[in-house]
Amino acid sequence: xxxxxxxxxxxxxxxxxxxxxxxxxxVPSFTTAVGVAxxxxxxxxxxxxxxxxxxxxxxxxxxLLGAGAVLSAFGGPHTRTTPEATAAATLRAATEDPVAALxxxxxxxxxxxxxxxxxxxxxxxxxxxxxxxxxxDGAFQEAR
Length: 144
Hints:
Blueprint: E1 2-3, H1 8-15, H2 29-39, H3 53-58, H4 62-71, E2 80-81, H5 83-94, H6 98-104, H7 106-113, H8 117-123, E3 133-136, E4 139-142
Parallel strand pairs: 1-2
Antiparallel strand pairs: 3-4
């Protein structure tokens, strides 16, 4: 098994054809909201914003921390990790306090300003959910 990592829709399209599974990480807003909603039995229909904010949003640090947390869970004797995946996992491991980093990042501060500090706290949790949202027929649903 090879574990790869890419950022943004162009890299996702390039990596997806050879992938057995594709994991989307958008912390704290998207991934957390989808996880909580699906955990409660909802199906989530994704909507992609197509404006000038998308490129800036895709460059924010918090997604790398989330991706690093996911990537660090993969491993084993038959696993090959690409340099990009290793870099994201290493960034997460090298961050002394990932929870504080998530609270201090642009999106974390923005959620505080909106009066949603609990969303940041939920996004910072590791291994707290047993639900895996999977995109099926255009909607994120609980994996069967």
